[in-house]
Amino acid sequence: MNAIPARRRFIEFWRFAGHVAHGGLLTAGLLSLAIVVAGHLEGGRQGSPLLPLAMSEAAAQVAADGEFADQPMADAPVDRIDQAAPALSREMTKVKAYVARRYRVSQVALEPLLAEAEAVGGQLGLDPFLLVAMIAIESSFNPFAESTVGAQGLMQVIPRFHMDKIGDDADESALFDPRLNIRVGALVLKEGLRRYGSMQSALQYYGGALQDPKAGYARKVLAMKARLKSAAGASNGNRTA
Prior knowledge:
Blueprint: H1 3-41, H2 57-64, H3 90-103, H4 107-124, H5 128-139, H6 163-166, H7 178-196, H8 199-206, H9 216-233
């Protein structure tokens, strides 16, 4: 008989303890939620000391650094976002319209290619209209063109001959990057100019036709360059060679 009240008191004690524990957890949970919400409403940049407990280790590190996932892209590292292409010159803008009509290529797609030709031409001292003419002759502005001998991309560069310009760590698809392809092609042309002294010979070197007495490749590229120059500057008399 004495065992029954003792057992009843034991059961009642644990029920009371369970209620206390449940109430404590609920209180702690509400307190944590209040802290998180308050931190968010106050700007969110400082974060809550309890917030990382509900986050992955990587997210917690981001929060500790004061950087949140919903931060505007403008604050991301420069190497993680595409940089806007520089604006085309007035002349190259006219060329863009001409090329789009002639080759049935989107002007939107042409814009970064022509901008790269202008940028690289300026850096290497090459006429950007000449680079665009080479692209027209080599690939008709198809960045994924590949010849039977393995020449790739806009300027039909053969990778095995120019790894020093591409980069030893580049993979087999590197030259299908239009910007890299234009840069490497321009470097090949510059190399030919340095070796042989004249633009005609440099172009023949580029086209693998140094022994052609009629310089057919150079003539073809230079004729295209003249057409581009005409499209660019017919209204202002800009017809420089």
